[in-house]
# Entry
Amino acid sequence: MNDNTPHDIPALLEQMSGQLRELLGQQELEQAAMLGIHTGGAWVARELHRQLGLSTPLGSLDISFYRDDFSRIGMHPQVRPSELPFEVEDRTILLVDDVLQSGRTIRAAMNEIFDYGRPARIILVVLVERSGRELPIQPDVCGLHIHLAPKHQIKLIGPEQLKLQIQEVS
Amino acid sequence: MIQQNPQLDAQGRLRHFLTTEGLSRQQLTEILDLAESFATVSGKSVKKVPLLRGKTIVNLFFETSTRTRTTFELAASRLSADVQSINIATSATSKGESLLDMLHNLEAMHCDMFVVRHADSGAAHFIARHVAPHVSVINAGDGRHAHPTQAMLDAFTIRRHKGEFPALKVAIVGDILHSRVARSQIHAFNTLGVGELRVIGPKTLIPPAASSLGVRIFHDMQAGLEDVDVVIMLRLQKERMRGALLPSEGEFFQRYGLSEKKLAHAKPDAIVMHPGPINRGVEIASAVADGPQSVILDQVSNGLAIRMAVMSMVLGRQPAPLEQPTEAQP
# Structure
C-alpha cells in the first residue's frame, strides 16, 4: 500500500492546539514548557508552540543516548544535543512527537527528561497515533488515529510544508 | 586491502582507538560531533546517560596519571558503565607474559574495554592484538607514540573556540620530540584540515623527520607565534629525557616559555592550551596559564565529552558474529 492521501496537517495541528487549551487551562499552559523529539516531533512542536503562543522557549530532545536498542544497533551517527532552555523541576512538560507507535521513543524521552529534573507532569502530544504499541504508553492529545499493519510505516516529511507519507517497509 | 588499520573492524568501524593516524576526516569529525552532544550531559542534574549499562571498563594504568585516569573513569561512569582502575606500578616484571596473563584474567571477568596507559610505545597496540574479539582497547598514552584522546579533545576545544579548522594557524610549542600528544595532534590536525600547523622548539627537541609530517618548523618563538590563532604549549617531559638535551629550565623558559610578552605576537584573540600537568615557570608563565586567553580548564571538561564519545562509539558497534580474533603477532 502506498496510500498517500493528503492529510490536512494545519487542521490537525489546529485541533491539537484546541485540545491542549482545553486540557490544561490558560494558567497551566502559560507555565508549561514544550519539548519536541528530533526530528519530526520538533517540527510539530514548532507549529504548536507558535499557535499556542507559549512564553517558555521551545526545547528539543534527541533520545539517542537513551534508546533501548543501543546494544543491538549501536550509536546513531548523527546525535544532536538536546536543548532544554528551561527548568524541568515542578513544571508541566508538553512532550511532542510526530508518530506514536511502539512507545519506546517516549519511554526513552521520559527517562531523559527525568535526568534534567522532576517534572510536575508530562503531557504526551502526538500528531499521529498508530497501532503497534509495545509499551503501556498512550497520548493525551492526538491529531490522528490510524490503524496500520506492521509492515506499513507512516512518516512525517518536513521541515517546511509538513506532509504525512505512508509506505511499505520490508 | 593488504594492511588493515588495526583499530577498525571488518566493516571499517572503530573497534579500538589507538592512534589518530590513519583515520579519515569523517571519522575524526564524527567523534567531535558526538562529543558535542555529550558535552550537554554534564549540564543535566543527573549527569548520566544509560548507554553503556552493563558494560565493564577497566583502566590499566602502567604509568601514573591523575587527569587522564580521572576523566576516563568519569566518562565511563557518566555512560553508566561499571569501571575499575588498576594502577600497575612500573615494576621489573617482564611485560610479555605476565601482562598477557593479567589480560586473560580480566577477560575472564567479562570486561568489555581496556583503557591503557603505558610508558612503552606500542603497548596499547600490543594489548589490542591479544584481546578477545569482543574486547576493545583505548590508548590513553603509550610512551612517546600516541595519546589520541588528548589530541581529539584539543581539536574539540579548538573547534569550540575558534570554529572550523581550515581558517586557523596552530602552533605547538616545546618538547615535540618526547611528546605523544604532539604526534597525535599533528596527525589529527592535518587530517582535520588545519590551515597551517607549526611546531616551535629547540633543535634538540624537534625530531628531524617532523617536516615530513606536514608542519612548519620554527626555532624562534617570536617568529613561530606570529599571527597564530591557537598556541599549544607542551609539558617538558623531564622523565623521558636522557642526556643533555636542555641547557637549564631557566634558559628554556627564557627562549621557549610562554610569557605574556611572547604571546603578544599571536593574534590578539588567540587561545592558549596545555595538556597538563603544567610546569609553571618552565614552559608557561602563571600569568598566561591563568590569563584570559587560557582555555586549559576547558580542555579538561572537553576531555570528558571526547572520552564519552570514543567509548560509546567503540562499544556501540553492532556485534559482528563472524569477526575472527586477530592473529597474535609477537
The mean pLDDT of chain A is 92. The longest strand of chain A covers residues 121-130. The helical segments of chain A are 9-31, 40-52, 70-73, 104-114.
